[in-house]
Amino acid sequence: MAVIRSLCGQCGVGCGIRAVTGEGREALIEGDPVHPANGGLLCTRSEALKDMFPLDGRLLRPMVDGRAAGWDRAIDQAARRLSAVIARHGPGSVAMHVPGGLLTEDYYVANKLIKGFVGSAHVEAPCSDAGGMAAAQRAAFGEDVTPAVYEDLAQADMLLLLGVPTARRHPVLHERLAEARAEQGARLILVAHADDGQEVEADERLNVAPGSEAMLLNGLLLHCHDHGALDRKFMERSLSVPADFWAGLRRGHDLWSVARACGLAPGEVRAFYDQVAAAPRLVTLFSPQGQGEEARRLSAAILNFHLATGRIGKAGAAPFAVTDAGNGMGAREVGCRAGELAAHRDFSVQALAEVGRFWGAARLADRPGMSGAALARAVEAGHVKALLMMGGLPSASHPIRSLMGQVPLVIATTPWSEPEIESLRMVALPSPLWVEKDGTLTGADRLISRQRRLFPLPGEAKPDWWIFTRIAQAMGWREAFHYERPAEIYREHVRLTAYRNEGGRLLNLKRHAPISNPAYDELTPWRWGEVPFDEGRFPTPDGKARLIAL
Length: 550
Known about the structure:
By secondary structure, the protein is α/β, with parallel strands linked by helices. It has three domains: about 1-50, ADC-like domains (N-terminal domain of TfIIb, Single Sheet), CATH 2.20.25.90; about 60-125 and about 325-435 and about 455-480, Rossmann fold (3-Layer(aba) Sandwich); about 130-320, Dimethylsulfoxide Reductase, domain 2 (3-Layer(aba) Sandwich), CATH 3.40.228. It is about 35% helix and about 15% strand. The chain is built from 19 helices and 20 strands. It has a seven-stranded mixed beta sheet with strand order 5-4-16-15-14-6-7. A five-stranded parallel beta sheet has the order 10-9-8-12-13. The protein has a three-stranded antiparallel beta sheet with strand order 1-2-3, with no helix packed on it. Helix 3 packs parallel to helix 13 (about 330-335), helix 7 (about 215-225) runs antiparallel to helix 10 (about 255-260) and helix 7 packs parallel to helix 12 (about 295-310). The radius of gyration is 24 Å and the shape is globular.
C-alpha cells in the first residue's frame, strides 16, 4: 500500500488528490486536504479517474499501418515518413492536434518540436475554449496572465458569476463560492439565462437573453463613467484609453438599449449597476467558451470594466476566467497554441531571435499558424500532409476526426486502441492515461502542482514527451532533445521563461532553474506571478494596461 499525492486533472481548477493504492490497479481517491486549489474538496468529475483503472480497450504496443511493431521500428518509421513529408511539401504541410489531458512537459516537447524544428505553427490545442480570454488578456495586460487566485473569493465583497454552467462545470469552485457567502458574507450575483437551471443559490439572479452579457457589462462600464465610479487615479497612472473609446461605448449601451437587448426592465438593469458599482472588492467569474466574436466581446467587456474601475491588482478584486481544459494553463505557458511561440512570447522579431537561439532551432516557425475551423478546412482541402497527434485521437465530434483518412501521414500517441489505428496509414504509439502520468500541471490561478502516477505504465506504453523526444532524435535533433526524465524538461521550460526576461513578462519561473531531480519529485504547489499588477504596472512597453476598443 502506498499514499500518493497527485492531481485530478479533469478540468482547469487543478484539484489535488490523495490516493491510497493497493495491489494491482486499485486505489482509494479522496481530496487532498493540504492542496491550495481544493483544500480537500473533490467533485464528481474525479470519478473519471476510476474509469481509467481497467486496461480494457487500451493500446499496449506500437502499431505501424495496423500491424504491431517494436519501438525501434515504430520510431524509425515515424521519423522517416515525417522527414519525407517536410522535404517534399514543406513545413507548412505539417499540423499538430493536441486533444488535452497532457502535462506541461508533454506540451513543451510538442511545441518545441513542431515550431522549432519542423517549422510549423499549425496547432490545434486543448485550451481553445480560452481563446477569447487569452487574446483579451494579451491585448489588455500585454501578457496572457490570469490575475485572480482562488483565495480572492474569500476576500471579495461581491462575487459576480456569469452563467450557471460556470458553476456546473466546476463544482469545487461552486463550493468555494458558497463558503465565501457563508463565512465572509460576500454577496453573490448570478447573471444567467432563464433555461440555465437553478443549481446555484445566489443573493440575486438576473436572467438575461443569451448573448447579451457583453452588452450588459459594457453598459455597466458606461454607467460607472457617467456616475463618477471610475478609478481616475489608477487610469491616469496605469491605463491607456484608445481615442474615442467612450464615444464608441456610448453608442448602443445606454440603459434603455441594454435593457431591451437583455430582456430586462430598465429598473432591473439600473439596480444591478448600482450594486456592482458600489462593491469595492469584486471578483467576476466566468468560463470562456469558443473563439468566436461573442467570446471575445465578453472577455473584453469584463477586462475593460475591471481596469477602468481599478478592480485589479488587489486582494478580492479581479476578473477570473476558469477554463474547462485540464492543464490548459500549462499549454498556454509553453506556447502550445497556433498564435504563440513559447513562454508567453509572440512571433515578434525579438521573440523569434530569443527562442531560436535558446532552442538552437533548426527551422523556426516565423508566424502564427492555423487552428480550429481554418485548420479543418486546410485538412479537407488536402494542404495538410502530416498530422501529429499527442495524447489521443480527436473526439468523435471534432471535425478533424472524420478527415483523418485524407491525410497521407498520421503519427499519434494514444492510450486507446481505436478502429482508425488498423484502417488508416498511421503510426500509433501507446501512451499513458492520466493516472499513469508524471510531471506538472498549472491550475487556472497559476498554481503549479505535481502530477504523480498512481500505477506503472501498462504494456509497452511510454510517456508522450518520451515518444516525441525519440522521434526528434531519430530525425537528427538529438542534441536539442536530450531528455530522459520530466525534470529535465521542466528545468528547460523554467529557464526559457527567464531567458532575456528582465521584467518584461510576468511568467518567470527562474526560482526553479536549479531544481534538482529529488526536489522536482517532492515539488509542493507554488504559484508564479505573486499578485499580478499590484503596483499598477503591466508588461507593456509603457507599463500601462490598455482598454480594448469595441
